[in-house]
Design brief:
mainly alpha, ABC transporter involved in vitamin B12 uptake, BtuC, two-stranded antiparallel sheet, transport, 656 residues, cell membrane, membrane
């Protein structure tokens, strides 16, 4: 008996039964009134809903939870990474983006099967993440960082495509957030046999997978071919995630939570982890979905379960970050030695000249009624220029603030990949505006206040969660990205309610200057002038603080107070900029880095150069968005994000 319990682990078995029992109990409360009702002559609508909607939905929750948990357990075991799962590695987001793009532009490919399309998107993302991870020894931080950034980019692009084509894809947006709603038994039956086939294939490599616990060197000496094993196991996990995503959309973080609970409850061996994780995940998703339907009533049919699980999964990711230090060797990023000479006036002059050209082009060049390029007609000059200038100055001010905020964050954290967007500060501002719009309905000043509060709260959470590690660069990044995922999930839940304000919020989140008027542009410009001037006055702090606490204290700088004020200043700048260009632009990453590449290494020149470069980039992004697909508009935030995310991937590759 003891041998049986030791082999299959009693603790995870009890936990799995507890979760499945709780899910079954909630499901009984959900369906009991229908079963107890007396049948009447004719069509029994409640029972039809039960047998063709409610029960298939509960079965889908069980199967999707099991499949995603198995995928997460496989990824964690083969990559030796306790944070790996289809969400954190971007696999589910890649499948979702592939389905959105195919539905919109290549609908004929759907005849080949949604699973194949989703599998193709997942495979592309998995290859990108694995290639980046291989260059850094499959470091847990590099893998998760790459996956989460790609996931944010894919999610943003999916949301924008849905927004620009909401007539065709509005239901696809709700599905993409993880909707388990069913109308027949087709999907659960399909999930059952597909998951079973993939699980059986993965079971064939159980022995070599178990040998990885002895270390890669020992496993190789015993005949394990690591490259082939990784390919097979990661391929199986990608297939599981793709099958679930094609059926019900993106279900966030179940593949992370279930294996973690199994491991904490006593699953030590790979066999135990792969056996109990799917059962725990099935129970977790069943509990989440049944609770949503019970608490939300009729609205629960439309609430995306995947977004709700992401709301609870992101905090878990924050709690699990310290475990990486215990279980895995962390590959710290090293600062590259800067060999550039201090920049003179020539570099700044070039940056200002580029900014001036961008302003002139954006203000005076456009497309006419017939689509031709040129300057506005003299008779229309007085009407068109006053319409364009507020948008131009809003983009300029927002880009400059994001770039200066990025300089502050990078210099304080010692991390060249820190920015308001990547750290989740812009997402916090978005959350503040969301609360303002849905609860208080304030004016522009009120929105700015709520955005600042949200940004500062997220910044405080990042600092608190990373303080124990001494603000280690990777931990700060992962904390910010996980908070961004949680905020996006909350906004997704609100958007799925069908409230008209959610559509307006999505338009604003896309980073479009379409609704900017003279009043809002003036407000943002004044805020940019005041906050940028404050940052310039803090140049001495920003020059000395990167040297460390001891040198700063030796010259009389109050380290804690100065850091607190500078982080607060970065949060305020991010909040003000987010109101005009949305939460995801990556200007706060590109501006400081390009300024540093140009030789601007001291704080004041770098901030000035980054402000000019960031403003010029955002103005050009807004101009391209307004003209490239005339007469339609692509939001400036999307244009800059489409460039910014690959830019971050290039930086990750350079830091191998």
């Amino acid at each position: 008996m003891n041998r049986i319990f030791g082999r299959f682990a009693l603790g995870p078995a009890i936990v799995a039964l507890a979760f499945l029992g709780a899910g079954a109990l909630l499901s009984w409360f959900l369906i009991a009134h229908t079963l107890e009702a007396k049948s009447h002559a004719g069509y029994d609508v409640p029972r039809m809903v039960l047998f063709y909607s409610t029960l298939p939905r509960l079965a889908t929750a069980l199967l999707a939870g099991a499949a995603l948990s198995l995928a997460g357990a496989l990824l964690q075991q083969v990559l030796r990474n306790p944070l790996a799962d289809p969400t954190t590695l971007g696999i589910s987001a890649g499948a979702n983006l592939a389905l959105v793009v195919t539905t919109l532009f290549f609908p004929g490919l759907l005849e080949l099967g949604r699973d194949l399309v989703a599998l193709g998107g997942s495979a592309v993302v998995a290859c990108l993440v694995m290639s980046l991870g291989a260059r850094r020894g499959f470091s847990p931080f590099s893998l998760v960082l790459s996956g989460l950034v790609i996931s944010l980019w894919c999610g943003a692009l999916s949301a924008i495509l849905t927004l620009l084509n909401e007539r065709y894809l509005v239901s696809l947006f709700i599905w993409g957030a993880g909707s388990l709603a069913q109308q027949s038994w087709v999907i659960p039956v399909s999930l059952l046999w597909k998951t079973a086939v993939i699980a059986i294939l993965c079971a064939l490599v159980m022995r070599p997978l178990s040998l990885l616990d002895l270390g890669e060197g020992t496993a190789s000496a015993l005949g394990v071919r690591l490259v082939r094993l990784r390919f097979i196991v990661v391929g199986g996990a990608v297939a599981l995630a793709a099958v679930v995503t094609s059926a019900v959309g993106v279900i966030g973080f179940i593949g992370l939570v279930a294996p973690t609970i199994a491991r904490l409850s006593g699953a030590r061996r790979p066999q135990q982890l792969l056996l109990w994780s799917p059962l725990i995940g099935a129970g977790l998703l069943l509990i989440a979905d049944a609770a949503i339907q019970l608490l939300a009533g009729e609205l629960g049919e439309f609430l995306p379960t995947g977004a709700v699980t992401a709301i609870f999964g992101s905090p878990l990711l924050l709690l699990l970050l310290p475990r990486l230090k215990v279980r895995h060797r962390v590959l710290q990023l090293k600062e590259r030695a800067h060999s550039w000479a201090p920049a003179g006036t020539n570099t700044l002059a070039v940056a200002l000249a580029v900014l001036l050209v961008a302003l002139v082009v954006a203000a005076f060049v456009g497309r006419g009624i017939d689509g031709s390029w040129g300057f506005p007609h003299a008779a229309l000059f007085g009407d068109i220029i006053p319409m364009r200038l507020p948008k131009v100055f809003a983009a300029l001010s927002s880009g400059a603030m994001l770039a200066v905020a990025g300089v502050i964050l990078q210099r304080i954290t010692g991390n060249e990949m820190a920015s308001p967007e990547v750290l989740g500060i812009s997402a916090g501002a978005t959350f503040g505006v969301t609360i303002a719009v849905f609860v208080f309905v304030p004016g522009l000043a009120g929105q700015l206040t709520f955005a600042a509060i949200g940004a500062l709260l997220v910044l405080a959470m990042i600092l608190l969660s990373s303080m124990r590690s001494g603000l280690a660069p990777e931990r700060v990044l992962l904390a910010g990205i996980s908070l961004s995922a949680m905020v996006d999930a909350i906004v997704g839940v609100l958007s799925s309610t069908g409230d008209p304000r959610a559509v307006l919020l999505m338009r604003w989140m896309s980073g479009s200057t379409y609704s900017v008027d003279a009043r809002s542009a003036t407000t943002v410009t004044i805020a940019a002038a005041i906050l940028t001037a404050a940052a310039f006055f803090a140049r001495r702090w920003l020059d000395i603080l990167p040297l460390g606490p001891s040198p700063a204290l030796a010259v009389g700088i109050p380290v804690r107070k100065s850091r607190f004020l500078l982080f607060g200043l970065a949060g305020l700048m991010s909040a003000a900029a987010t109101l005009s260009v949305g939460p995801l632009t990556f200007i706060g990453l590109m501006g400081p880095h390009l300024a540093r590449e140009a030789g601007l290494v001291r704080a004041l020149p770098q901030m000035a150069g980054a402000a000019a470069i960031g403003g010029a980039l955002m103005v050009l992004a807004d101009f391209i968005g307004r003209t490239i697909v005339w007469p339609y508009q692509i939001p400036a935030g999307l244009v800059s994000a489409l460039v910014g995310a690959p830019f971050l991937m290039m930086m990750l590759r350079r830091k191998s």
